[in-house]
Amino acid sequence: MEETKEISALFHLLDDPDTEVYNVVSTRIIDFGKGIIPNLENLWENTISEEVQERIEQLIHRLHLRDLSEEVGVWNKNAHQDLLNGALLVSRFQYPELATAPVYQEVEKLRRNIWLELNNYLTPLEQVNVLTSILYNYYSLRGAEVGYQHPEEFLINKQLETKRGNAIANGILYLILSELLDVPIRAINIPRQFVLAYFKSDYDFGRPTSDLMYKAEFFIDPMSGQVFTHKDVEAYFKRISVPPVPSYFKPLSNKRIIQLLLEEFSKCFDTDKTRYKQQELMGLAEMITEEPETPPTPPDATPE
Predict the structure, then answer these.
(1) 189-194: average pLDDT
(2) 28, 30, 36, 39: CA torsion to nearest 10
(3) How far apart are CA 280 and CA 276, in angstroms?
(4) What are the distances in angstroms from CA 130 to CA 118, 136, 222, 225, 247?
(5) What order do you get walking across the sheet with 226-228 strand by strand?
(6) pLDDT tens-place string over residues 127-167
(7) What is the chain's Cα-based Rg?
(8) Of 14-28, 145-159, 177-191, 223-237, which gets the smallest average pLDDT?
(9) CB within 8 Å of 118: residues ≥ 6 apart
């Protein structure tokens, strides 16, 4: 962006100690949009004041965040919320200049390798064994418990780069590949876990039922691809002393999965210096809104 007299004057005021003056200046700079970022980067390189450099970094971050917020809003309003696109939006919070093409290429390579091994005669368990074998054996993906001291383990670009992700990130990659390959695997809402379930092929996800657990053929731990039975899951609920109510087995929407990713990722920034990032991530999570469910009409009800 051409540096006008107004921009030059605003830049000269960036070191103003008066908070009120700085707030007015920073708001006006933000109003210029992302086009002003190269000017700010040039100013940062030619500034010896660490305080001014820190203010410039904050301004660049705010500009990227405003752009990201707009994209999250668009993703939320789309007719279909693409899970890979949603995961990349979360990655761009930390890596605003992220090149997404390599991520798409890596996911496509994985999809193709799995597709070559799948056929219509495989049982549900055999389908999952193919997915798991390619991901965790051939591709050497490793899983880790969710740890908030490792923010990179939440982000799909770093996960594919290092072949290591936590249960949420690995689960999202598993779901992305399942959706691309038409394998009916969904995430479910089991307490304190991110667990996947293989649902019966004729299951109507829109139909209410009190027996959701048994609509699933089996369950999958995305950290390792290990398969769990209904008895394993029942034993887990007994161990944590929580009744296995139907809502825990209802498939999560892509919106809720990305919202959960943002909420959990935000917990990585729980220090005085980084808490602003936590608040920003929670703000992005709050932008994602689920459509209210329409209650089923009783058979004998007469529409008004």
Answers:
(1) 90
(2) 70
(3) 6
(4) 7, 10, 14, 10, 29
(5) 185-188, 195-199, 216-221, 226-228
(6) 999 999 999 999 999 998 888 999 999 999 999 999 999 99
(7) 23
(8) 14-28
(9) 127, 130, 181, 183
Cα–Cα distance, 43 to 256 (Å, whole number): 40
Domain boundaries, the chain: 5-77, 83-287
What does the pLDDT look like over 203-252, one tens digit per residue?
665 555 555 556 888 999 999 999 999 899 999 999 999 988 888 888 99
Distance CA 248, CA 270 (A): 28
- Retrieve residue 59's tokens: 């301004």
Residue type, 268: C
Residue 50 structure tokens = 């660490």
- Tell me the C-alpha distance between 185 and 247, whole Å: 17
Distances (CA, A) of 122 to 127, 131, 153, 155, 179: 6, 12, 32, 32, 17
Q: What is the pTM of this model?
A: 0.87
Q: What is the pLDDT of residue 7?
A: 84
Judged on CB neighbours under 10 Å (0-12, 13-18, 19+), 56 is buried
Tell me the β-bridge partners of 219.
Answer: 197, 228
